[in-house]
Amino acid sequence: MQKVQKNASDVFVECLENEGVQYVFGVPGEENLTFLEAIRNSKITFITTRHEQGAVFMAATIGRLTGKVGVALSTLGPGATNLFTGVAYAQLAGIPLLVITGQKPIKKSKQGKFQIIDVVEMMKPVTKFSETIISGDKVPSLVREAIRLAEAERPGAVHLELPEDIALESCKVDPIIPYNARRPVADAKSITMALEVIENSKNPLIVVASGGNRKLVRKQLQIFLEKTGIPFVSTQMGKGVENENSKLYIGTTSLSDGDYVHQVLRKADTIIMIGHDISEKPPIVLTPENCKVIHINFYPAFLDDVYIPTLEVVGDISHTLWAFSENIKNNPAWDFNYFFKVRDMLKKDIATFSNSKDFPMRPERIVSDISKVLPDDGMLALDNGMYKIWIARNFVSKEQNSILLDNALATMGAGLPSGIASKILYPNKKVLVVAGDGGFMMNIAELETAVRLGVNLTVLILDDSGFGMIRWKQKDMNLSEFGLSFKNPDFVVLAKSFGAIGHLVKKADDLVTLLKKTLNAKGVHIIACPINYKDANKILGLIKSKTTK
Predict the structure, then answer these.
(1) Which CATH superfamily hosts domain 6-171?
(2) How far apart are CA 255 and CA 281, in angstroms?
(3) 3-state SS string over 121-171?
């Protein structure tokens, strides 16, 4: 059969369709117009955002939730530099992402060096793959290789630059059919060695980290938990891999150190670390001097001062857990009494201020109200700020990937775009964005995107007129309060100006009522809620400084 003559942009978009890409998010420029026309004539939905950072956060969320590559588009120069934070966000969090940038013609210069920077070299430190397409005939192989690398363990970001003249270049090539690669499994000897360590320990403990959320390991983890009765702890990015309503769930490592959960980690003589990623903020220092650490992941450990495993079981996590369940011999001498005692103390602590009438509201009450209203399959999309610690610590996650937070790059500004992408992917789920006033204002322009797309979305803005997390650190260092305060707009009026609906929490009992109302209503709703971290942060400091007996 004779191949049809097409331009490189048409081939590129056909390759994306061939890979199952449904959405491309972006802010195009003149260098992308041929590519944009190819998308217009395809089955792919193009979603125009108001800032490239919003586009890449949305694309990364698609990648995070599906395990398939999310795609973002920008022009050259300032458009590409605006993508950079979101690319780093995906790379550090292990999220499959493809960013496509335009460029001036590479065969004949029309405008000298106007807007030109070396985007390919700029992207290399924060991607798995970054390359310029120099020929239309190379499009199928480069797109297939980029996406293959983006989705392979460990997932991450990749970048392709499509120059304006190459985008128009005629070629006679077809997409490369993707194939499913089988992931290697751990060798039997490493599994046997790990089981011997677990069986001979006295206080084994499971820690579920971000790598467990990237693949469907929940079923095999549940079987292993039921077989052994070994308790588990979640890292922030490991929340939801297993239902935290389980009696075996101890808590989430949300403080840097010193909370109840950290005392449990220090008591364990063997830690079974499932899906650990060195990019996530560590729960505690995990080295052989402190306990035996069994690294279970798709890839070998990256050694650091804070993480040195005793033993590595490298291969498909689900298969490893299956092999553990099939072969482990429960030890009657295992002792979990201390773990469960601390779990009960933590639950009591969490409940202490869950019905507080204090106003501005305490974070404990806010998390409690969210928990009362959000259904089990509802989704929380978090920005970054002080409240993230409280939500990670106090919120019980029941479904996998039902709480989207970033504990790797931990960038502000991702919450609203992440919530929008979640609603695009799951229009029938209740999605709640929680953002501080600082993070929300960083990508407020995407409020227009949400309204234009017609999504039903609730955004809870926690208003303390400052950068609360850094204030806490500043005070913890006994420094004077300086440089971290600002004034906010009237969020109700602001919402209206965007075509959204604004609400203001005026007393503590208002929040749960407004959450129920807005999560079941049409349109985009903004709830502005004054928050007071001061008293709550004092409690965190006390917890951090004491040791559970």
Answers:
(1) Thiamin diphosphate (ThDP)-binding fold, Pyr/PP domains (3.40.50.970)
(2) 10
(3) HHHHHHCCEEEECCCHHHHHHHHHHHHHHHHCCCCCEEEEEEEHHHHHCEE
* Torsion sign (Cα): 129, 130, 135, 140: positive
Q: Note the pLDDT tens digit of each residue in 1-15.
A: 455 668 999 999 999
Burial class (CB in 10 A: 0-12, 13-18, 19+), 242: buried
Apex 108 CA angle, 107 and 113, nearest 5? 110
CA distances from 479 to 102, 232, 475, 543 (A): 46, 38, 6, 21
Fold of 188-342: Rossmann fold (3.40.50)
Tokens 């999310």 belong to which residue?
Answer: 70
Give the CA angle between residues 323, 328, 333 to the nearest 5°: 155
For residue 241, the surrounding DSSP H or E stretch is none
Q: Are 208 and 241 in contact (CB under 8 A)?
A: yes
Domains 6-171 and 352-545 share a fold: yes
> Is the N-terminal amide bond of 360 cis, ω within 30° of 0?
yes
The C-alpha R_g of the chain, in whole angstroms, comes to 24
Query: What does the pLDDT look like over 90-101, one tens digit per residue?
Result: 999 999 999 999
Q: In what order do the strands lie in the sheet with 204-208?
A: 249-253, 232-235, 204-208, 270-274, 292-297, 311-314
Res 125 pLDDT > 90: yes
391 residue type, one letter:
I
Cβ pair 269, 204 in contact under 8 A: yes
Under 8 Å between Cβ of 230 and 206: yes
Cα 142 to chain centroid distance, Å, stands at: 27
What's the pLDDT at 193?
97
The answer for residues whose C-beta is within 8 angstroms of residue 479's C-beta and 6 or more apart is: none
Nearest CA among 503, 441, 495, 497 for reference residue 466:
441
Burial (Cβ within 10 Å: 0-12, 13-18, ≥19) of residue 332: exposed
**Local structure of 502: helix, strand or coil:** strand
Q: What is the pLDDT of residues 418-439, one digit of tens each?
A: 999 999 999 999 999 999 999 9
CB 513 within 8 A of CB 503: no
- Specify whether the CB–CB gap between 427 and 450 falls below 8 A: no
The two structure tokens encoding residue 328: 């482990």
Domain with residues 352-545, CATH architecture: 3-Layer(aba) Sandwich (3.40)
Q: Are residues 285 and 266 in contact, defined by beta-carbon separation less than 8 angstroms? A: no
Using DSSP's 3-state secondary structure scheme, residue 379 falls into strand
Report if pTM > 0.85.
yes
- Residue ranges covered by each domain of the chain: 6-171, 188-342, 352-545
Please give the DSSP secondary-structure letter assigned to residue 341: H
The amino acid occupying position 236 is Q
Element (H, E) at 114: none
What's the CA gap between 63 and 48, in Å, rounded? 18
